[in-house]
């Protein structure tokens, strides 16, 4: 599948200070494609050594 097949992305980020930089990088990968998305700040992920977690749904008809 390709980026154009993405229909939904859930983003879980540790720090609010990373949202701007993360969004800029994400948009460069999506190259204009605009799937539905949810971004949630989850500071507790840092305890597991995680800075970012993604969940993506894609569909191909």
From TrEMBL:
Q: Which InterPro entries match?
A: RutC-like_sf, YjgF/YER057c/UK114
Pfam families membership: Ribonuc_L-PSP
The protein's name? RidA family protein
Record lineage: Bacteria, Pseudomonadati, Pseudomonadota, Alphaproteobacteria, Hyphomicrobiales
């Amino acid at each position: 599948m390709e980026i154009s097949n993405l229909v939904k992305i859930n983003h879980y980020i540790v720090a609010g200070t990373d949202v701007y930089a993360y969004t800029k990088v994400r948009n460069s990968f999506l190259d204009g494609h605009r799937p539905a998305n949810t971004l949630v700040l989850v500071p507790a992920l840092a305890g597991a050594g995680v800075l970012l977690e993604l969940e993506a749904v894609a569909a191909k008809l």
